[in-house]
């Protein structure tokens, strides 16, 4: 259970058991501090509205083998599983997003932006989703 974002720092790998995926569950009182967008935050914004780190400097990060569960957060509350604005040497693998299926939900799995190789990230993600 988490009540605020986990920050995925430079050279950080978050790795769960591939044979029994651990769940990161947002509490009903999950709150996003100013600048954060997601349960797992890799590039929070500064008070100026700009990302804290330039996307081309966000390397060597990986998240794999997790269930990201947002179902404890009301559907009317905006929450994202992962904010992913990374560049090279990064990956997302074997992640299950559980979120509200209510009409008009404000939940989303991944918010992806910037990044030097964004196109290749999107192709990799599209291949995984099929």
Strand and helix map with partners:
Elements lengths: L5 E2 L5 E3 L7 E3 L12 E4 L19 E9 L9 E6 L5 E9 L8 E6 L5 H12 L1
Parallel strand pairs: 1-4, 2-5, 3-5, 4-6, 5-7, 6-8
Query: What string, H for helix and E for strand, traces the elements in order?
Result: EEEEEEEEH
Spatial extent as radius of gyration: 14 Å
Structural class: mainly beta
Number of domains: 1
Average pLDDT confidence is 82
| Structure summary, number of beta strands | 8
State the helix count: 1
Low-confidence sequence ranges: 118-130
How would you explain this protein's 3D organization?
By secondary structure, the chain is mostly beta strands. It has one domain. It is built from one helix and eight strands; from the N terminus they run ββββββββα. The strands form two sheets. Strands 1-4-6-8 form a four-stranded parallel β-sheet, with no helix packed on it. Strands 2, 3, 5 and 7 form a four-stranded parallel β-sheet that branches. The chain is globular and about 35 Å long.
Task: Note the main attributes of this structure.
4-stranded parallel beta sheet, 9% helix, single chain, 130 residues, mainly beta
Summarize the structure.
The chain is mostly beta strands. The protein is 9% helix and 32% strand.
């Amino acid at each position: 259970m988490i009540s605020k974002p986990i920050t995925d720092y430079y050279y950080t790998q978050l790795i769960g058991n591939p044979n029994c995926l651990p769940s990161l569950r947002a509490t009903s009182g999950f709150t996003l501090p100013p600048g954060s967008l997601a349960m797992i935050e890799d590039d929070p914004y500064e008070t100026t509205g700009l990302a804290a780190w330039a996307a081309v400097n966000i390397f060597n990060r990986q998240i794999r083998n997790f269930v990201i569960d947002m179902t404890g957060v009301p559907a009317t509350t905006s929450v994202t599983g992962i904010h992913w604005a990374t560049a090279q040497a990064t990956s997302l693998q074997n992640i299950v997003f559980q979120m509200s299926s209510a009409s008009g939900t404000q939940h989303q799995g991944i918010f992806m932006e910037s990044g030097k190789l964004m196109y290749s990230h999107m192709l990799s993600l599209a291949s995984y989703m099929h």
